[in-house]
Design brief:
By secondary structure, this protein is α/β, with parallel strands linked by helices. The protein folds into 2 domains: 157 residues, Alpha-Beta Complex (Spore Coat Polysaccharide Biosynthesis Protein SpsA, Chain A), CATH 3.90.550.10; 154 residues, Hexapeptide repeat proteins (UDP N-Acetylglucosamine Acyltransferase, domain 1, 3 Solenoid), CATH 2.160.10.10. It is 18% helix and 29% strand. It is built from 7 helices and 26 strands. The strands form 7 sheets. The chain has a 6-stranded mixed sheet with strand order 13-16-19-22-26-25. A 5-stranded parallel sheet has the order 9-14-17-20-23, with no helix packed on it. Strands 12-15-18-21-24 form a 5-stranded parallel sheet, with no helix packed on it. β10 and β11 form a beta hairpin. The model has no long low-confidence stretch (mean pLDDT 94).
């Protein structure tokens, strides 16, 4: 099979059919990479088997005004999907819930033979398809296949569970800001269901200087290991590993990624600073929209994205 850049979500799986066949599973779980949530997939798989479904789609209730960014579905009383529209301009609300839509989480359980059959059929369409699950594959299944929704709920209380799409600058920034709330919905300190990830062995974060005009401190914030806050003030922000913030700087409502250096007397607000960027002394970000737009990238929600390249610096992954 000839391989190329992935043309869509369905094509991405199609180009890896050999891996699926090599493992020969009865079912295939397809997941999106730009979502944040904690989910036990076992009950969803069990429901798929119980309903003898060809495809089961994880779904969640979201505000109607934001539903145009997702696949929106209409379901029957037993959760069979009757209609599916990918990113509709005018999404339809859930009956009886005028301000809410049922959206796809981008989580799919397929019976393997059925999945391979549909991927081959979609691939054969060539340029007639965008080779995307939501746009092409799923809508064509509803009339003749068993396709069901699986609502993602919190245990027995019937409330929708935590799930965030972080595929845009605004949604990524918002999801990070939620983590520094006093009681965030996603609890990173949950010992019953810990989040495991790779972490470098770095020294603890450090705060230095305690003078009236030069105090290293952080409030309502999360500071990762290896970072040093030197006479700077951090508020309601997240600092990733090995960040350096120099004296006199103020950071608020911002996400500072790995290895960033922020010089003296900088003011940064509602920003995302990409890995490896060095912010020069006296830089102001997030205070003048016109000035920010001329130098950096500003999201529709007003979040300023700053990368090393925008600053004329070598990006951290370059030689």
């Amino acid at each position: 099979m000839e391989c190329s850049w992935y043309k869509g979500t369905a094509d991405a799986v199609y180009q890896n059919i050999d891996i699926i066949r090599g493992h020969n599973p009865a079912y295939v779980l397809v997941l999106a990479a730009d979502h944040v949530y904690k989910m036990d997939y076992g009950p969803m798989l069990a429901r798929h088997v119980e309903q003898n479904a060809d495809l089961t789609i994880g779904c969640i209730e979201i505000p109607l005004e934001s539903a145009s960014a997702f696949g929106v579905m209409k379901v029957s009383a037993n959760n069979e999907i009757l209609e599916f529209a990918e990113k509709p301009a005018q999404p339809q609300p859930i009956p009886g819930k005028p301000g809410t839509a049922m959206a796809s989480m981008g989580i799919y359980v397929f019976s393997t033979a059925f999945l391979i059959e549909q991927l081959k059929r979609d691939a054969a369409l060539g340029e007639q398809s965008t080779h995307d699950f939501g746009k092409d594959v799923i809508p064509g299944l509803l009339d003749h296949c068993r396709v069901y929704a699986y609502p993602f709920r919190q245990g027995d209380n019937n409330r929708m569970d935590y799930w965030r799409d972080v595929g845009t600058i605004d949604s990524y920034w918002q999801a990070n800001m939620e983590l520094v709330d006093v009681s965030p919905e996603l609890n990173l300190y949950d010992d019953d269901w810990p989040i495991w990830t790779y972490q470098e062995q770095r020294p603890p974060c450090k705060f230095v200087f305690d003078d009236d005009n030069r105090r290293g401190m952080a409030v309502d914030s999360m500071i990762a290991s290896g970072s040093i806050v030197s006479g700077a003030h951090i508020k309601h922000s997240l600092l990733f590993n090995d960040v350096r913030v120099e004296s006199g700087s103020q950071i608020r409502d911002s996400v500072i990624l790995h290895g960033v250096v922020i010089g003296r007397n900088c003011r940064i607000k509602r920003a995302i600073i990409d890995s490896g960027a060095v912010i020069p002394d006296g830089t102001s970000i997030g205070e003048d929209p016109q000035q920010d737009s001329a130098r950096f990238s500003v999201s529709p929600g007003g979040v300023v994205l700053v990368t090393a390249r925008m600053l004329g610096q070598q990006e951290h992954f370059e030689d």
